[in-house]
Task: inverse folding
């Protein structure tokens, strides 16, 4: 009897369980749901051989198992080379693996991260027949802790004529500081083809929770004044995935956030001259002439020991530079 025949006749109840650490469990689950494309093809060939090449033996995937096979393998890999955001995404992401089909369109949420300030969700779309163009748009936003306010950035890649890989980065308005866990809900409602103006409605509804990944808060207590603008950065949060820079700004009496002609920006560099990519930002008024918000940058983890951050106000050809401040990498400082 060969190994394959022995495997098919194996009684699962006779197998003794082995203890597995939490890290090993996460690594195993991550490997199952995030196989490289060529490995997935090998798996498909193996299933075909087992189904049709062994006499009368037939292997049938249950609907539960079949529903866990991702539409697109390693979603964020489609964006590598264009952004540094996902260099360490898989090291920190929580596997969601939720998939729903409505009106011939399947939407899958693959993995997600909550870094204390932003939520990043990797998703995929597959249609039985529809081509949604190059950049389809969803009808409804993601809701965080019951709040739809905030900002979001969506990136989508067309994999085939009917399959898409995408990532949504959301900066929600979180009241009362950064929670340890956030509750996410998303009912897209529709998928809109901008090129043809065709809208496909559907009844998809996702709900899940995310725990905050490890965040190292660095006290900064930075304040600088330029041209009657007072800018304060109380702290900077560094995770293995992102760098978050919260800020507060007081404006001259002639300005409010709604009519502020300047854009608020931060330049982040390390001692090697690397520029850190800005991913998303959020700002809101606190009083008539004051506002607060945050900027999120990709954490390149380039081996640097310090970061130099320079706040700016930019309007057309005018640039107001605030004094730079330096923060030390807590990973390096603790060694």
Result:
């Amino acid at each position: 009897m060969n190994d394959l025949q022995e495997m098919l006749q194996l009684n699962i109840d006779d197998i003794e369980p082995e203890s597995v650490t939490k890290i090993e469990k996460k690594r195993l689950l991550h490997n199952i749901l995030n196989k490289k494309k060529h490995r997935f093809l090998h798996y498909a060939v193996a299933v075909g051989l087992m189904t049709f090449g062994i006499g009368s033996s037939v292997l049938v995937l249950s609907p539960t198992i079949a529903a866990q096979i991702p539409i697109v393998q390693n979603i964020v890999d489609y964006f590598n080379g264009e952004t540094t955001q996902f260099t360490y995404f898989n090291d920190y992401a929580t596997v969601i693996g939720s998939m729903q089909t409505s009106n011939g369109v399947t939407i899958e949420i693959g993995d997600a991260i909550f870094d204390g300030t932003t939520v990043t969700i990797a998703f995929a779309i597959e249609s039985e027949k529809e081509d949604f163009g190059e950049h389809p748009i969803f009808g409804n936003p993601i809701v965080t802790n019951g709040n739809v306010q905030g900002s979001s950035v969506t990136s989508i890649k067309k994999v085939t004529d009917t399959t898409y890989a995408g990532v949504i980065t959301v900066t929600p308005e979180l009241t009362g500081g950064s929670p340890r866990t956030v509750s996410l809900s998303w009912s897209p409602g529709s998928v809109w083809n901008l090129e043809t103006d065709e809208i496909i409605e559907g009844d998809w509804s996702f709900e899940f929770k995310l725990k905050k990944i490890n965040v190292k808060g660095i006290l900064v207590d930075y304040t600088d004044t330029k041209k009657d603008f007072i800018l304060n950065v109380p702290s900077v949060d560094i995770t293995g995935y992102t760098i978050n820079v919260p800020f507060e700004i007081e404006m001259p009496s002639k300005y409010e956030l709604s009519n502020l002609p300047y854009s608020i920006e931060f330049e982040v560099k390390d001692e090697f001259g690397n520029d850190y990519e800005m991913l998303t930002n959020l700002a809101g008024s606190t009083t008539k002439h004051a506002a607060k918000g945050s900027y999120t940058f990709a954490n390149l983890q380039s081996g640097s020991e310090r970061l130099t951050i320079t706040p700016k106000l930019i309007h057309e050809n005018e640039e107001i530079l605030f004094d730079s401040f330096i923060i030390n990498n807590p990973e390096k400082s603790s060694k």
